[in-house]
Amino acid sequence: AIVDGSSIVEGDVLIGLPSTGVHSNGFSLVRKALFEQAGYTVDTQLDELGGEKLGDVLLTPTKIYVKTLSPLFKAGVVKGVAHITGGGFIENIPRMIPDGLAAHINLGSWPVLPIFDVLEKAGEIDHMEMFNIFNMGIGMVIALDASEADKAIGILTAQGEKASVIGRVTDAEGVVIR
Q: Beta strands of 8-128 (E only): which ranges?
């Protein structure tokens, strides 16, 4: 029952689980963009962040996905899992996909958290480069057979998760974000 990605094939679906924020990656760039370049402080309150203090948003605890994923593993629907940590989508998703296959990610298929828009603007970071650095609101990606997508989303929804189908596995290599 080991989930190692070896059974992933073209046409499999990629489901994204939401992150709670920046999590624990990219903080050197976070400090540079927000505090050095933009001149914000931890007490800065931005309308884009719902008036919360910047420091509070940045220190939102990293979500742990063990309880969330456990029912999916028990149901036997998971073919691969990628935790979106340092290296963002570009480095992490290919680790679960066999050679010769790629992840095609559909922009707009999940809500990007406001902190990432703030970071992108403050640091003048290229939009696509953001996906190479940050989780962009997706903390975990699960690969599974397309016929199991509704079942998996139902299991996740029953746990209070707002999972989204964010893409598919294709016959190229790497990660394509469109």
A: 13-18, 80-83, 102-105
What confidence score (pLDDT) does residue 1 get? Answer: 75
Distances in whole angstroms, Cα of residue 59 to Cα of each of 21, 52, 131? 8, 12, 20
pTM: 0.94
Question: With contact defined as beta carbons under 8 Å apart, do 7 and 79 qualify?
Answer: yes
Could you give the 3-state DSSP secondary structure of residue 33? helix
- Give me the DSSP letters along 107-131: TTSSPPPHHHHHHHHHTT--HHHHH
Residue type, 174: G
Burial label, 108 (beta-carbon count in 10 A; 0-12, 13-18, 19+): exposed
Does residue 174 sit in helix, strand or coil?
strand
- Tell whether the model's pLDDT for residue 143 goes beyond 90: yes
- For the stretch 47-86, pLDDT in tens is 999 999 999 999 999 999 999 999 999 999 999 999 999 8
